[in-house]
């Protein structure tokens, strides 16, 4: 629609119709009959508002969305189509690995391809907007939503944020071919104190800008059409009513002209936060902060019009918000085609295709991280050894994680079925061995009934039999593969935990099994870094598999048998124990570093009962090959505008290796304290067997910029260290002077 016509449309709306565009309701408001008693009554939303509402939350499927849209438009005076928005975080029907696994690929280019597929499936299923990517920087593995993040590094997060937005919002001949991206959760939700869900976030503006904003900024710069506010506070003010974040930074400093939508009920939660007395004040706070859409509460629906009529809010704020929503609908072409071509036939053709599965398998292969491989136990040779697969994830298809909302476990290739495809019967056996958990009571909070919870729990007899059968089978095996991990519902939203080791019953099972003295391989399925401290001692090999998605079983078997050489590198540190958290590689220096020359013994930054170091550091991952790094060279010892840095890689192995060469810097002296290391460059490099390559990086002066004492984003002259290597710990060091 021409913009002038769109403006005329805006001007022709009543205030109620305008308010309607700023309200988002869930699907049950549109196709369930018992609205009077159910959600409508609960939210106090009138039918008048439902008839003019602007968008729908988490309804997908060509048939359903078409049906709702058709009925809605029939009653619509101005024929303004509904926007269908949904949580499509790392896959619609073809589910890729969780984003913490995507981060471990260090391959934004590949992830952009994945998100193009996600957009294609989603669009054909009637989705117009996805609440993705989630780009919250994470440093605390107790927080369940690490699952949705690409990790702890500002720059890596920024690269993935851009890749995901560009993949989702793929342009074709100047038109939006994909779906609109709603980047979330703005801002710094990942810094919830104590890793406790929905808890306070408080930090300096310097830390906010230096570490936490990069992902959102990158997404906005990549053209994300929406931003979702986060539940947390920043500097004592909840983000959904925080003018500094939403107006000053997002809109004015970054020039974001898209739609800001609150997270679920976050407008009304301003009351619970204690910054609004009632829904009227909550509405005022949120609208004055330029939050455009109120997700799933009655605040805007019931309070905005009275505020306008009483002259208690600037009508321009509301008109501007409605204008942004109408422009979004126009950018999606909804006025010309409210269904964006989504049909049941097209949906069937586009979902879960072989091409999509193949890409999901490739991404999963690159997401898997080999954490240990003693005596090069891996890769295995098919049918050379007797293999026993044990553990609750062995024959489990639920490998897609909590936020795979529209994925189906029955599409998933389990580890067992993938193994059965390449191993002969007399070389392979499977025994469950133990349950996923010993107690499922917590599922009650997610709506599970007592009966469902009861059915999940193994009886004492069942436990004894399962263990006995596993031990008996283990005696006949040469190698035991343990498919273990945390329950899907133990991570993701509302999944904060203070004990992030493997479930106790699984640990007890492992203790019994390793007594057999066989070769042991752990596959860890989790939505976060787990403290695998005990397992590192017990296992000969460990693969961190995340929730690997629809093709997870196949990808794991590809790695186990060497069809693919593992190349994943951690994008989030794995702690030795939960007491070390929050933990991140790019920590500041302190006045009493561990290796202090001026202080001895206990009087340095350390614990009495734990190392400072992570179990596995940021950037860590093993390969089946051995690649040596040497000959680090700088084009000069002094840098003015740029510096060339090179390093030689030599593949000493018979394997083709995909190495992620990482370059870090340290600003030795700044006007404020600087991190011990900061990732600045990385390259994924393929090395043929015995191949040698010189890898070069170009460091620009702007790569050294940071928020200095006066908050200017720049740098000061002085000494810098540069580190190049295969992870944040294992590097070769050099230095240069910035002049
Ligand atoms: C949830 C999540 C958010 C999600 C939204 C809509 O509470 O915080 O990530 O997109 O509600 O489901």
Quick structural summary:
The chain is α/β, with parallel strands linked by helices. The protein contains 24 helices and 28 strands.
Written account of the structure:
The protein is 31% helix and 19% strand. The chain has 739 residues and is of the alpha/beta class. The longest helix has 17 residues, at 108-124. The mean pLDDT is 96. It binds alpha-D-glucopyranose (GLC). Alpha-D-glucopyranose is lined by residues 58, 87, 131, 184, 263-264, 493. GO terms for molecular function: beta-glucosidase activity. It comes from Enterococcus hermanniensis. Keywords: Glycosidase, Hydrolase, Signal. Its EC number is 3.2.1.21.
**Overall strand count:** 28
- CATH architecture designation of the domain at 363-562: 3-Layer(aba) Sandwich
* Uncertain residue segments: none
User: In the CATH hierarchy, what is the class of the domain at 363-562?
Assistant: Alpha Beta
Question: Please, what is the CATH homologous superfamily of the domain at 363-562?
Answer: Glycoside hydrolase family 3 C-terminal domain
Biggest sheet statistics: 8 strands, parallel
Query: And the CATH topology of the domain at 363-562?
Result: Rossmann fold
> Helicity, in percent?
25-40%
**Rg, Cα atoms, Å:** 27 Å
Strand order of the largest sheet: 11-8-7-4-3-2-1-12
N-C termini distance? 54 Å
Averaged pLDDT: 96
What would you call the structural class? alpha/beta
Please count the helical segments: 24
Residue fraction in strands: 15-25%
Overall 3D form: globular
Bound molecule types: alpha-D-glucopyranose
Catalytic activity: Hydrolysis of terminal, non-reducing beta-D-glucosyl residues with release of beta-D-glucose
Domain Fibronectin type III-like: 659-728
EC number: 3.2.1.21
Enzyme class: hydrolase
């Amino acid at each position: 629609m021409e913009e002038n016509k769109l403006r005329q449309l805006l001007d022709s709306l009543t205030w109620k119709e305008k308010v309607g565009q700023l309200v988002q309701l869930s699907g049950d408001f549109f196709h369930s009959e018992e609205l009077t008693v159910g959600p409508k009554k609960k939210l106090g939303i009138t039918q008048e508002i439902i008839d003019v509402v602007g968008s729908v939350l988490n309804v997908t499927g060509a048939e359903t969305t078409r049906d709702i849209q058709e009925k809605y438009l029939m009653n619509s005076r101005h024929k303004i189509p509904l926007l269908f928005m949904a949580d499509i975080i790392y896959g619609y029907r073809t589910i890729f690995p969780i984003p913490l696994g995507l981060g471990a690929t260090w391959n934004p280019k590949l992830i952009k391809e994945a998100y193009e597929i996600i957009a294609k499936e989603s669009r054909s299923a009637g989705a117009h907007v996805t609440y993705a990517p989630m780009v919250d920087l994470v440093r605390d593995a107790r927080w369940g939503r690490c699952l949705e993040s690409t990790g702890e590094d500002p720059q890596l997060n920024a690269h993935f944020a851009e890749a995901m937005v560009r993949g989702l919002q793929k342009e074709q001949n100047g038109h939006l071919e994909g779906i609109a991206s709603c980047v979330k959760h703005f801002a710094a939700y990942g810094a919830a104190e104590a890793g406790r869900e929905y808890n306070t976030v408080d930090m300096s503006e310097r830390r906010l800008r230096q570490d936490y904003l990069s992902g959102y900024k990158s997404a906005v710069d990549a053209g994300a059409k929406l931003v979702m506010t986060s539940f947390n506070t920043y500097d004592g003010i909840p983000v959904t009513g925080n003018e500094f974040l939403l107006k000053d930074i997002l809109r004015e400093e970054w020039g974001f002209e898209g739609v800001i939508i609150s997270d679920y009920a976050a407008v009304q939660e301003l009351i619970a936060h204690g910054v609004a007395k009632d829904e009227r004040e909550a509405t005022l706070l949120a609208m004055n902060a330029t939050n455009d859409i109120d997700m799933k509460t009655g605040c805007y629906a019931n309070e905005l019009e009275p505020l306008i009529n009483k002259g208690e809010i600037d009508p321009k704020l509301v008109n501007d918000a409605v204008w942004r929503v109408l422009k979004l609908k126009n950018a999606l072409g909804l006025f010309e085609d409210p269904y964006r071509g989504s049909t049941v036939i097209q949906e069937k053709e586009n979902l879960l295709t072989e091409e999509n599965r193949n890409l999901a398998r490739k991404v999963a292969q690159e997401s898997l991280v080999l954490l240990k491989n003693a005596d090069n136990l891996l890769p295995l040779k098919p049918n050379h050894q007797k293999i026993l697969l044990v553990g609750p994830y062995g024959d489990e298809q639920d490998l897609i994680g909590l936020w795979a909302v529209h994925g189906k476990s029955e599409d998933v290739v389990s580890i067992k079925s993938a193994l059965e495809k390449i191993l002969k019967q007399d070389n392979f056996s499977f025994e469950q061995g133990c349950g996923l958990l010993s107690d499922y009571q917590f599922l009650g909070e997610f709506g599970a009934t007592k009966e469902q919870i009861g059915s999940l729990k193994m009886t004492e007899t069942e436990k004894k039999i399962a263990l006995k059968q596993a031990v008996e089978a283990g005696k006949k095996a040469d190698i035991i593969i343990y498919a273990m991990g945390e329950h899907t519902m133990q991570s993701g939203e509302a999944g904060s935990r203070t004990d992030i080791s493997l479930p106790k019953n699984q640990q007890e099972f492992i203790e019994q099994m390793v007594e057999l003295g066989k070769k042991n391989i752990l596959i860890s399925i989790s939505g976060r870094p787990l403290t695998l401290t005990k397992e590192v001692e017990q296992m000969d090999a460990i693969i961190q598999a995340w929730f690997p998605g629809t093709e997870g079983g196949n990808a794991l078997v590809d790695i186990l048998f060497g069809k693919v050489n593992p190349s994943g590198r951690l994008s989030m540190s794995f702690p030795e124990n939960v007491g070390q958290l929050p933990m991140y590689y790019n920590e500041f220096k302190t006045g009493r570093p561990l290796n202090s020359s001026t202080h001895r013994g206990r009087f340095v930054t350390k614990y009495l009962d734990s190392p400072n170091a992570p179990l596995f550091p940021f950037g860590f991952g093993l390969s089946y090959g051995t690649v040596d790094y040497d000959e680090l060279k700088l084009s000069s010892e002094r840098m003015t505008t740029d510096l060339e840095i090179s390093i030689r890689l030599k593949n000493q192995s018979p394997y083709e290796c995909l190495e992620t060469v990482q370059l870090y810097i340290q600003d030795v002296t700044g006007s404020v304290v600087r991190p011990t290391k900061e990732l600045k460059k990385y390259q994924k490099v393929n090395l043929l067997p015995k191949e040698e390559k010189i890898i070069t990086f170009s460091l620009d002066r702007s790569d050294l910029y940071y928020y200095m004492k006066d908050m200017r984003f720049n740098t000061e002259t002085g000494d810098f260290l540069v580190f190049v290597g295969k992870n944040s710990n294992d590097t070769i060091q050099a230095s240069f002077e910035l002049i």
